[in-house]
Amino acid sequence: MSQELKVSRIRQGTVIDHIRPGMALTVLRILGIGAAVSHSVVVAMNVPSGALAHKDIVKVENQVLDEETLKKIAIIAPHATVNIIEDFEITAKHHISLPRALRGIIKCPNRNCISNQDHERVSSFFICEREEPIEFRCHYCEALVQAEQAELYA
Amino acid sequence: MRSSWQGRDIISIRDFSREEIEMVLQAAGRAHPDPDALRGQVMASLFFEPSTRTQLSFASAMERLGGKVIGFSSGKTTSQAKGETLQDTIRMAEGYADLIVIRHPLEGSARLAADTASVPVINAGDGTHQHPTQTLLDLYAIKQFQGHLDNLKIGLVGDLKYGRTVHSLATALTRFHGIELRLISPASLPMPPAVLRELGGLVDYREQEALDLSGLDVVYVTRIQKERFPDVEEYEKVKGAYVIDRAACRALGPEAIILHPLPRVGEIAREVDSLPQAKYFQQAQGGIPVRMALLQLLLKGELA
Ligand SMILES: Nc1ncnc2c1ncn2[C@@H]1O[C@H](COP(=O)(O)OP(=O)(O)OP(=O)(O)O)[C@@H](O)[C@H]1O
Ligand SMILES: [Mg+2]
Ligand SMILES: [Zn+2]
To answer: What is the distance between the alpha carbons of residues B114 and B214, in angstroms, rounded to a whole number?
Structure first.
């Protein structure tokens, strides 16, 4: 057991492991975690990770991630592992993968896009165009968005 | 041929492979007026923003094939003004027509219409995004006058940043071999990086500010719009530098052709109209056969 594990054990919640270095803060933003948190949140940045150089880790107590949130995390951290913790033990481990298509997650950067008109009631729809760097294309106006710069719906 | 075209939508030139482009151009070459070809079929022409030229061209193509046209030509007179969503307008129109042609000021509107409608949808321009039938008729003109679409030196001149037609044309040219693109624009109006990236490795391109047409097989000219400039002075300076006049055309060989999506304002001097290379008016005429071909392909899967 590493030192890191000992100092940051949570009883119940979620551990998002193998986040690409530097992306932990974006993961927090997606989780809606700001300055005022009511439960424990542990963030480890740029920690050594075996052969794969370095990684970020986010551990959130008492929070279960829904499908929508997992998709958002997958966009910016496609190789992340989501561990579900119950009574200090890992009860489930999910390897998330980069979604091929995203509905209602990324906001199209093109203000003149049909998906940005409230009265039209159309959810944004993006298709993954490439993986390095991760890039999505708007199904409607064909605008390209880099995942790391993407504006996500709250 | 039948199954792949019938019922299909024409939304973005990005959806077209080389073979599909060639098939449309070949069909356009064979298309001819025939009052029985689409007899009894109805085309809904939904122009949420006016575009006389495109609208008339589609209507003319449909009428020449014996079909009927219904529709409107300004968003303000329609239910859109009453707050109806585009999707609801499309659901209404698909009940009245066998095919929908849409022009709309918002980017992505045509794709939404196609997703909504069960009948085929043709994008006749969605904001600054795409106008695929324009691109097909541009290619038709090049093929018509040069005989082929491979191994050509093509100059795109003018506003390459906001010009929808040049973006689509550049994308389409990646489907062909041996294309050399000379991208001639003011420094403030270059081809967008996303388009350049698409060209990468497929089309040999060079960006430049100087209006040098030497050695080109095709000169494709677009309008530089005043609205794109923060100050009038800058616009005046740039505008003058990209006027195709007889002097600029001296660099062109006799087989070269000059194209323009029209309407032109001042970017091609009138003195050029009588040069053998001036093909922009004939280019515009190609809109009818290209659209006659598409209407038949989408409605019947093949040409009569
Ligand atoms: N109770 C806990 N509280 C906080 N973090 C925990 C807890 N249990 C495990 N973790 C963390 O969850 C992650 C996954 O733990 P695990 O024991 O599955 O490691 P692993 O075998 O290396 O898994 P992987 O193959 O996903 O890398 C590690 O970062 C670990 O520190
Ligand atoms: Mg591990
Ligand atoms: Zn869009």
So the answer is: 43
Q: Which ligand is nearest to the CA of B127?
A: 3
ipTM: 0.93
Determine contact: B45 vs chain A, CB below 8 A: no
Is A90 found in the same domain as A117?
no
A5 domain residue, yes or no? no
Torsion angle of C-alpha atoms A99, A100, A105, A106, degrees rounded to 10: 120
Contact B127 A141 (CB under 8 A): yes
Residue where a domain terminates, one of A79, A95, A111: A95
A142 contacts B108? CB cut-off 8 A: yes
Number of domains in chain A: 2
Q: Does A3 reside within a domain?
A: no
- Closest residue, chain A, to B109 (C-alpha): A114
d(CA B33, CA B69): 16
User: Residues A67, A84: one domain?
Assistant: yes
Crossing angle for the helix pair A24-31 and A67-76, to the nearest 10 degrees: 160
Give the residue-averaged pLDDT of B194-207: 96
The C-alpha R_g of chain A, in whole angstroms, comes to 17
Q: Please give the residue range of the domain that contains residue A122.
A: 101-152
Nearest CA to ligand 1 atom 2: A9
Q: What is the pLDDT of residues A77-89, one digit of tens each?
A: 888 999 999 999 9
The model's pTM is 0.90
Alpha-carbon distance of B33 to B60, in angstroms, equals 10
On whether both A91 and A17 belong to a single domain, the answer is yes
Per-residue pLDDT reduced to its tens digit, B34-54: 999 999 999 999 999 989 899
Q: Using a CB-CB distance cutoff of 8 angstroms, which residues of chain A are in contact with residue B106? A: 112-114, 117, 120
**Mean pLDDT confidence for B119-138:** 97
My answer on whether A65 and A127 are in the same domain is: no
pLDDT tens figures, A93-128: 999 889 999 999 999 999 999 999 999 999 999 999
- To 10 degrees, the CA torsion angle through A17, A21, A23, A25? 90
Report the percentage of chain B scoring pLDDT > 90.
85
Q: What's the CATH code of the domain at A118?
A: 2.30.30.20
- Residues 83-142 of chain A with CB under 8 A from chain B are 108, 110, 112-115, 117, 119-122, 138-142
Of residues B268 and A131, more confidently modeled: B268
Please tell me whether residues A78 and A143 are part of one structural domain. Answer: no
A10 lines ligand 1 (CB under 6 A): yes
In this structure, what token pair is assigned to residue B146?
């040069």
Residue B79 has pLDDT above 90, yes or no: no
